[in-house]
Amino acid sequence: MPFIRVLLLCLFLSFVPPMPAIHASSETLDTTPDRQALLVLINRLGYDDLAEMPELQKLSRRGAVALMNVNTGGKRTDSNAYVTMAAGVPAKLNSKDMLAYNADEKLHDVPVSAAHAGLHGHPPGQDVLLMSLPRIARKQERWNFKASAVGLGDALQRHGLQTAVLGSSDKGNELWRPATLFTSDEKGRTPYGDVGDQLLKSDPARPYGVRTDYERMWETYRILQGQAELVVFDLADLYRVGEYRPNLTGEQFAKLRRQALREADQFIGKLAGEIDQNSLLLIASPQAPVSAQVRAEWIAPVIAAGGSMIEDSVLTSATTRREGIVSNLDVAPTLLHFLGVPKPHGMIGYPLQPTDAIGPRQLDVLKASTVWTYSNRAAVLGAVGAIIGSGLLLAVLRLFQVRTGITLGGIRVLLWTALAMPLCLYLLPLLRPSGLWEVAGGLWALYLLIAAIPFRILPFCQKLTGRLIWLSAWTILVIVVDTWQGGMLAKRGLLSYDPIVGARYYGIGNEYMGIVIGAAVLLYAALRHATRLEQRWLGRGAVAGGVLLTIFFASPALGTNTGGALTMAGTTGLCLAMQKRCKLLPTLGVLFTSLLGAAVILLLLNQPSAQPSHIGAAAGQVLSGGFDEMSRIFARKSDMFVRLLFSSVWPSLFLLLLSLFAYVLFAPGGHEKRAWQTRYPYYRTAVGGMLAGSLVGMLTNDSGIVVLGMMSLFALFPTLLIWLETETVPGGTPKRSLSLRR
User: Fold this and answer.
1) CB 280 within 8 A of CB 37
2) Are strands 353-355 and 313-316 parallel, antiparallel or unpaired?
3) Any idea what DSSP says for residue 361?
4) Which residues contact residue 51 at a Cβ distance below 8 angstroms, ignoring those fewer than 6 apart?
5) What is the distance between the alpha carbons of residues 617 and 629, in angstroms, rounded to a whole number?
């Protein structure tokens, strides 16, 4: 299985000519030393906290604001959040691995400067030193990304720009200075700054007995204004309050938190007075506050002002293509882009950009809907899965003549519900449900409108094949048109991707990619039985449809799904090969040719001038990193595939059930053989091609088990409906078609 995935990837890469870059943001830019970027990190700041920070509100009106995903390469911890934001890739790092000191501090009674000189061979200046960088370098080798934890600071210093870091997240005697990740070079050196206790004031009334000395921090910053192009501030009082919460009453915690917010806000007000077109002030929270985490609000605010930011706007980026929602991977690329430094190899985020497509006041609604989708996704899909599973179980028991007390009509309703549910879930955002009962009512209403009522009143839908054509055609049409128009339904769908999970933000996800391909094959099979079109024209139409859908998946502006393009092309070829009863070697030749065609389409559509996408980013990484980067991509995909496959017993059970289904489908036998050959002679070959194509999808997608499940839905349930329709009486004569009426 891994060998096949490597082979397919190599096939794609063999058609990619050497290019200097994939997208404009990775091209070398002239440095602009007259600019200065300020990054203010306020860990545990929530979006709702902005209401208590008047200076920050003023700043947001001068610039742009957004909700930021805080996902990492591991658990959502503070240390993982800092290193992910600094590296520009999903990363993870233990908090004990971030050991930073001022050069004049001591480490085990040895001057830090001397210890650093002993490790690296030459004495540093009055720097801030990240002493644990060798340990960090060993850890980052296991990220499956060729990126550095200090890629931002190192890139700037390599281009002659200086960096500085001010602030400490120390908790009493527990040292923790993660902001140095943003400013260090490859030797762990930050030219300017202070991360020691000189910027902390002793205060017994504060958590851990200290608080940030904002007066001294401001004075130090004014000195650095003409010396450092990037200054990073770590305002950690809010973080310390959050960490100290178990030792506080609710009233004390709220009071200390308001005090920390007020002081940080006043300091930001001072910084805001220094901002002009040649400076950028970027404020971000690496991690959400604990109170927000309890409510599943895994998003934090980010605000940008100065530079080319538009007043009273919201932020977006090529990472998300979502107005008002960005990724923590975009922070480092934004700073590099503003300072005119090319993004280092391996960093996958994109610069933040302002947009007035929506207003900042709409972020409250966007936040509420985003959190609601994330919080209720599992419950809704679990209930839908129970309905689908019940229909499957009851249909199988019926076929084995096991009495359950459920009528044949009731079983068929469950099967049709399963086939209609993906489309119902896709259209559900149109009804704007705000509670689980509204979701249940909305899905039932949509099922009535999409399936139950048309099945009763439309003459075309009085036969099983007509109903299959109706459902599959509408499923494809709605998804493709919505994606073409920007994917507004997909962005809010419960079965689609959501910004808090952060696996995908745009295009067509693996769930609906499998649904579109499965519905397309089902549509083709049903049309062969229900129309009077010449089979040769229908076959040509199927090939044309397969090509168009492959282009749809491959397009960086539409589907943006490499695995989808390969799966669609492979499934089309396999269906046609099985229809023509090709033997094994010719079938493999057709599959190879189809995948080759998909690779060419991917290449042609993802040229450097194309819209930035993760397909282009991955191709750019492979072009610059070669086989090493290709192996990293393969490792990431394989790791996700294995995790999904063995996350529970259900994927393995599903694979077993699907294998048994395929065996029964193609094994010789009296009842099944008569049903396929006398009533639906073409359907079995289409289903066989779909099942074989789903294996291509499983091997070419990181969440391949999801693709397999969605495609199998359109193979398994229509087959069960056909089997139930062709039940025979003792004499062997088929019953009246039960697919017409109950």
Assistant:
1) yes
2) antiparallel
3) G
4) 57
5) 12
Are the C-beta atoms of 130 and 150 separated by less than 8 Å? Answer: yes
Q: What is the mean pLDDT of residues 702-724?
A: 85
Q: Phi and psi (nearest 5°) for 166? A: -135, 130
DSSP three-state, residue 55: helix
Nearest 10 degrees: Cα torsion 367, 383, 559, 527 = -150
Query: Does residue 346 have a pLDDT over 90?
Result: no
pTM for this prediction: 0.85
- CATH code of residue 75: 3.40.720.10
Per the structure block, which two tokens stand in for 176? 């923790």
Cα gap 273→282, rounded to integer Å: 14
The parent domain of residue 483 ranges over: 368-402+411-725
Q: Give the burial class of 100: count Cβ atoms within 10 A of its Cβ; 0-12 exposed, 13-18 middle, 19 or more buried.
A: buried
**332 is a domain residue:** yes
Q: What is the pLDDT of residues 545-595, one digit of tens each?
A: 999 999 999 998 888 888 889 999 999 999 888 888 888 888 899 999 999
Q: Are residues 113 and 178 in the same domain?
A: yes
Which element (helix H / strand E) includes 639? helix 614-645
Segment 643-654 shows an average pLDDT of: 65
Q: What percent of the chain has pLDDT over 70?
A: 83
Q: What is the mean pLDDT of residues 708-729?
A: 80
Do 311 and 319 form a contact (C-beta atoms < 8 A)? no
Burial class (CB in 10 A: 0-12, 13-18, 19+), 478: middle
> DSSP per residue over 310-331, as a string?
PTTEEEE-TTT-BTTEEEGGGH
**Mutual angle of helices 510-530 and 562-579, in 10-degree steps:** 20
Task: Please tell me the number of Cα atoms within 13 Å of 297 on its side-chain side.
Answer: 20
Same domain, 438 and 547: yes
**Please, is 678 exposed, middle or buried when counting C-beta atoms within 10 Å of its C-beta (0-12, 13-18, 19+)?**
exposed
For residue range 94-138, list pLDDT tens digits in order. Answer: 888 888 888 888 777 677 777 777 666 665 666 888 888 888 888
Q: Please tell me whether residues 632 and 573 are part of one structural domain.
A: yes
- Considering the domain architecture, whether residues 329 and 395 belong to the same structural domain is answered as no
Angle (CA) 134 136 138, round 5°: 75
**pLDDT at 344 > cutoff 70:** yes
Residue 143: count of CB within 10 angstroms of its CB? 24
Distance between CA atoms of 303 and 275, rounded to whole angstroms?
A: 13
